[in-house]
Amino acid sequence: MPTTIGEEVSVSTANGYINNFITDYYETGKAPVKSMIMDAQLIRDYLADNTIKNVKFMLGARTISVNGQDKEIFTLIVAGYDANEDYVLTSSNKVLDYSAPCPHNCPTGGTAANDTIS
To answer: Does residue 1 belong to any structural domain of this protein?
Structure first.
């Protein structure tokens, strides 16, 4: 496995990926969310553990209540792992979850209110 996984991509490339997902999955009903939002400080605190070498983003499904109705939504579980490829848990022996699903909990102002990056 390479020592560095991931790289920066252009905004144009990212927007193409985002539009493909929205068109092929969200708009067809195959995926109930367009994006997921997580508190940056939660991520910063977790990644302050210098033994974390890589971060694994895992998709999950959970149920939320929207206007009194239960809806299944995707969620994003975030777990780092070390150089031995062992998971590194938070100081309270957990991993990160409970990202806010968009379109249910989307930003409403600024450029982050858009589906794509501008």
So the answer is: no
